[in-house]
Design goal:
- The protein is mainly α and 223 residues long.
- The protein contains nine helices and no strands.
- Helix 3 crosses helix 8.
- The longest helix is centred in the last third of the chain and has 38 residues.
- The chain is globular, with a radius of gyration of 21 Å.
Amino acid sequence: MLWPRGRQAARSSSDRAELGVFNLRLFIEASITLLVIMDPPGTVPVFLGLVGRKSREARKRAARQGVLVSFLVITLFAVAGNSILAYMHIGIPALQGAGGLLLLLIALDLLTGKGATQHPEVEDVNIALVPLGTPLLAGPGAIAATIVFVRQADGWGSYFALAAAIVAVHLVLLGTLRSAGLLIKVFKESGILLMAKIAGLLLAAIAVQLVASSVQGFITSGV
């Protein structure tokens, strides 16, 4: 009679303790999920297609700014994503559709060669914000996954683990993009130009997939 109660009390005490310690399982799960969705190796061709013909310092600045923008967007939706979407009556399908249309415009610029402007410094900032920072890195998939993990969190230990996972993933992204310049020595100028066209095709495909997922989401939800 006493032993089950004692064991139940010990389990309850253990559960309460877990709420205040680092949740390793959530950290691993969130890190792997975000890495798969944000796909650091897959962003390298697009990144080089956007800034591969610029100087080394410009590439590093674009990588740093793009990852920072992505980190801020993901953090914002981790902290207030549910409230923002509920207040503005926006669902994940709407985010997917908007992101897809935005990426499609960038893809058309890359494919037609109209991405250059007369103000390179403005272009660098724009590339870091759109499409690199968002929606390429901090896209609808990463935002939705972050919101889901926040809903699963059940204590400060879980919140800290999720925050650590977001930081770790963005450090991997930064390291990957900063090392992408090594490929320039291999592909040279003509290779970077070809990569820009390939990046345009990849972005167009991602855009179409986002729009298709958006339409499917609206149909499923009955909107």
